[in-house]
Structure formats: C-alpha cells, structure tokens
Design a protein that fits this description.
The chain is α/β, with parallel strands linked by helices. Helix content is about 45%, strand content about 10%.
Length: about 260
Amino acid sequence: MPDTGTQPLSPATAAAPRRLHFLGLAGARTVATPSLAAVEDALADAHGQRRFLCVLGDAGVGKTFAVHHCAHTRFPTTRLLLRLGARPTPADLRTHLHHTLGLPGTAPAAPALADTLIRRTLATQPYIVVVDEADRMPEACFEYLRFLYDATPSGLCVVLIAGQRGAKALRAQQMLATRTARWLTLYPLTRDQIPYAAQALHPMWQTTTPDQLLFLDGVFASGSLRRWALLTHHVQRTLKATGRHQPDPGLLQHTLNRIDTSCRP
C-alpha cells in the first residue's frame, strides 16, 4: 500500500466485546483510530478529576462505541451505562441508576429515599455514569445529574454523548460550564485513513484493493466506521448466500445496489 503520510491504523490492543460493535458484527475488530485514543485520554482525565465529559460528533463517527469501549476496558467494574428512552424524566434516571448500581429490589417510590440509596452507593467507588443521546434529556434531568454530582463528596464522572446537532442543547446547560473537564468532538475518518481502517476493522477486506475501499467509502460509508460495519455485515450475507469466500468488485456493487439505491452506477 502506498505511503499516504498518515500513521496506518491497526486493530487496538484491547478488543471490544462483539456486542459493542454495530449489529454485533461477527469478526469485527476494534480499530485504534485517533478518535478512540482521544476518548481514552479524555475519559481518563474526566475520571481523574471526577467531572463531566461531553463527547460530540456526527452520527456514525463512533462516539458511543469509543466511550463504551474505553469504559469497558479501563473501568470495567465502575461504569454505569444508562440506556434511556426519548425525553426521559428524573424518575427514569433514578430507576436506571438503581438497577445499574445493582441495588436490591425496585427503586423506592419516594424520590428522597431513592436518592439517598443512589448517593450513598455512588460515594463508595469512583463510578462513571454514561448517558447516550444526552441532548434528548429535558432540563430537569440535567439538574438531577447536577444534584448527584454536587451531592457526591469527591465529585462524579458523568459522560454525556450527543450528536453535533445536540451540541447546542448541551452547551445551553449552565451547570456544565463549571463542571465539565472537557468538550470532545469526534470526526469521520479521513480519506487516507480509509484503507487501513477498513482492513483493521475486519479481515474480510484484506484482499480488497485500496482503490476499491476508497470507492466504497466515497459512495457509501463516508468515513463512518458504523457504515463500514453495516456494509461488512451485508457483504458477509451476500458471500454466504452465494457460497463465495472473498468479495470482488461485482459482488460489492451488487451488495451496494441492494442496501442503498443511491449507489447504483
């Protein structure tokens, strides 16, 4: 492969569990992208300071994967991943925290009692609370997180993940201005990183030429590892259906035509 002037990307030393990959992609490997390294550094910093970390970026750049991977590999016993629905309430946060912290029974109906149990448990270890799509939260939820942060004697590391369009909603929260260790924005892979990244993501791409990988990125993936995972998933299905072992240009174009009509030649 020609020298592009960019440090080649490779599989990360610590692999993420399959369930963290988009679609649980079989055979997927964790790619040591600049974004992954940036999240690892920022998370370690925010955890050390026990403050908020805001991770922003367009859909598919790997925000959630990077945060979950780094939390899983570096803080496996203290990460609290909150999976909230659209427009959650403080009551939803209480319920999810009660469950994720492993507290017995169901969350108490009385908010004060529920909060006491949560606060006491959060104070026992340097937990990391991760909230995806945080821009969907109403102000009352941000205030609840502020309450937990202020009520925890040594502070609380809270990671808020949001798309670029949600950045305005997060920055509008005054409480984040003085409690956030870092605002981190992730970006898509650059064109010269694509051949390395695709081949690091999955061994299936080892026999595909750099030019073909760049074509696939240009018409479909647009520097998004999530889109690459989606494409890999569909190519795997096509290979299985046709009894073939390696993708060729014809099979790749056939797959593109099936999953995205805008890719028709």
